[in-house]
Amino acid sequence: MSKKLIIAIDGPAGSGKSTVAKLVAEKLGYLYLNTGAMYRAVTLKALSAGVDLDDESALIDVAENCVIEFANSGTKTLLDGVDVSNELHLPHVDKVISDIVKIPGVRRAMVAQQQRIGEQGGIVTEGRDVTTVVFPDADVKIYLDASLEERAKRRYKELKEKGEEISLDEVEADMRMRDEKDSSREDSPLRVAADATVIDTTHLTIEEVIEVILHEEEIL
User: Residues 195-206, buried b or exposed e (16+ Cβ, 10 A)?
Assistant: First the structure.
């Protein structure tokens, strides 16, 4: 396929969208644009700087004045030139990110950066509003989902591998709260685009999900 596509993948936490997007991008030689990592980077910077999380104007200022870039075809996230990839999914970020991403000014700042990165095509992007807000005219739209229990198990495994001391029950409770906040926020809530292909990944391997996307969408 000669045309460089915009492939957009939405879904809740733990649905597999990050891993799938990375591997699809790798297969196609595209950039992996992780919009969630951008919001996490803003959250991490605000926490590190001790910004009052109730001060929306201060949080918007952080979002408007940080430089977020991607290296290694998008697998590394750089915040103001520093690789913060391993810090983005730590529990203290998970606990507050939903309160930050719901702020319209923060979202506007990030969406503008995302659209600039993707304007030439040749990207696989994932998040919670990439099929509905960031790239509503994307060539391919996918919505990945899975049961809460399965998604919590996946995130728990990731955190344990990083040495985090946290229980599965805590992870599931945090994820349930995140789902509720993401789906009910006024600005760009998580929802299924009318023209998106929905894939339940609960009982599928990563390879099977990728196979569905590449072949059902006739990308290859």
Answer: ebbebebeebee
Q: Which CATH architecture has domain 6-216?
A: 3-Layer(aba) Sandwich (3.40)
How many residues are given for the chain? Answer: 220
> What Å distances lie between residue 206 and 14, 48, 49, CA to CA?
12, 34, 37
Tokens of residue 122, six digits: 């040749």
Q: Can you say whether the dihedral through the CA atoms of 11, 20, 18, 142 is positive or negative? A: negative
**In angstroms, rounded to a whole number, what is the distance separating the alpha carbons of residues 125 and 157?**
24
Work out the average pLDDT over 71-94: 93
Residue 201, both tokens: 């990944």
Tell me: pLDDT of 16 over 90.
Answer: yes
Phi, psi angle pair for 79, to nearest 5° = -110, 115
